[in-house]
Design brief:
The protein has about 375 residues and is of the alpha+beta class. Helices cover about 35% and strands about 25% of the residues. One of its GO terms (molecular function) is galactokinase activity.
Length: about 375
């Protein structure tokens, strides 16, 4: 493959969701932060209608195809996301041609930190600039979401895309997914003597496997039974739960309704400058996802339980579940002890050794060159 054309570099970060899991596709509330880990797209336009894709990751194959031939399911793996952006833009009526796209990303893949959304958002920004499409952040997020839902086949909400595109440094992004309005809430862990520790359990996390879609479908079923457009519209949670049959459906609805309430309490605490107060809400969120939404796994439970036993103020799984990462709110002085304890617990269970890093609220997507 001949040398790639590069007209600029666009970057979009991964995200950690402080709280608000599986609420976005129910038109609820979420509270993500962007993280320093970033996907970068080196992009240049082509006049021959070809789409050429490459990744700097070892073992990644280059792809060369006609942009006009793109269709859902045509590609898999990392290449599906930049290709899906081209397809989604063309499907939305934007007159774009071919391109050279080279990807370089340090967002951990499969860790539940939105590596795919970061990749898609970086490429959407690139095409928006290069072809002067006039996309605002919400429309860019919708295009990136369509890559996931229609091209790749995972029915995600808007959390990941809006976080990658809309977060700002030093803040959490309080987003109302019903109308996509958001405000930036100060989130200063360091100032409170705390760290938000991410534990990448390295347990396989693949939302395309179907568990995510099944839970979204169950929420839509419950909303229909309750006669509301989405679970966000439930006015009386107790009455709604009582109206549903006892079993998984009721428990899943209970998670969504109580998770929205937890997001609001965390936002209030952060606005009052009380970062330490959010710990119990994180832990309650994990219990709800483990017991009601049933999306945890032994590695995630081990990470959370061990962190709490070592003095973490709160901990929970983060992302879609079924593997991936957990977060723990930890006193700075306890960070090393928590890390060591989790490593020891994983070894005792013969789990794959986890990876750790600190989540620092970072800037959202931007052009870098």
């Amino acid at each position: 493959m001949s040398e790639f054309v590069v007209e600029g570099v666009w970057a979009a970060p991964g995200r950690v969701n402080v709280i608000g899991e599986h609420t976005d596709y129910n038109n609820g509330f979420v509270l993500p932060i962007a993280i320093p880990h970033t996907a970068r797209a080196f992009v240049g336009r082509r006049t021959d209608g070809r789409l050429r894709l490459a990744s700097t990751h070892a073992g990644s194959e280059s792809v060369d195809l006609a942009a006009a031939d793109l269709a859902p399911g045509a590609l898999s793996g990392w290449a599906a996301y930049p290709a899906g952006v081209v397809w989604a833009l063309r499907a939305a009526g934007y007159d774009i041609g071919g391109a050279d796209i080279r990807i370089d990303s340090d967002v951990p893949v499969g860790a539940g930190l939105s590596s795919s959304a970061a990749l898609s958002c970086a490429v959407v920004l690139a095409f928006g600039d290069l072809y002067e499409l006039g996309l605002d952040r919400i429309e860019s997020a919708r295009i990136a979401q369509r890559v996931e839902t229609d091209f790749v086949g995972v029915p995600v909400g808007m959390l990941d895309q809006m976080a990658s595109l809309g977060c700002v440094e030093g803040h959490a992004y309080f987003l109302d997914c019903r109308d996509l309005t958001g405000t930036h809430v100060p989130f200063d862990c360091a100032g409170a003597g705390l760290r938000l520790l991410v534990v990448d359990t390295r347990a396989r996390h693949a939302l395309v496997d179907g568990g995510y879609a099944e839970r979204r479908a169950s929420c839509e079923e419950a909303a229909a039974l309750l006669g509301v457009p989405s679970l966000r519209e439930v006015a009386d949670p107790d009455a709604a739960l009582a109206a549903l049959p006892d079993g998984p459906l009721r428990r899943r609805v209970r998670h969504v309704l109580t998770e929205n309430e937890r997001v609001l309490r965390v936002v209030d605490a952060l606005r009052n400058g009380d970062v330490r107060a959010i710990g119990p809400e994180l832990t309650a969120s994990h219990a709800s996802m483990r017991d009601d939404y049933t999306i945890s796994c032994p590695e995630l439970d081990t990470a959370v339980d061990t962190a709490l036993a070592e003095g973490a103020l709160g901990a929970r799984l983060v992302g879609g579940g079924f593997g991936g990462s957990a977060i723990a709110l930890v006193d700075e002085a306890r960070c090393e002890a928590v890390t060591a304890a989790v490593e020891k617990a994983f070894a005792a269970h013969s789990f794959t050794p986890p990876r750790f890093f600190q989540a620092v609220p970072s800037a959202g997507a931007r052009r870098e060159g």
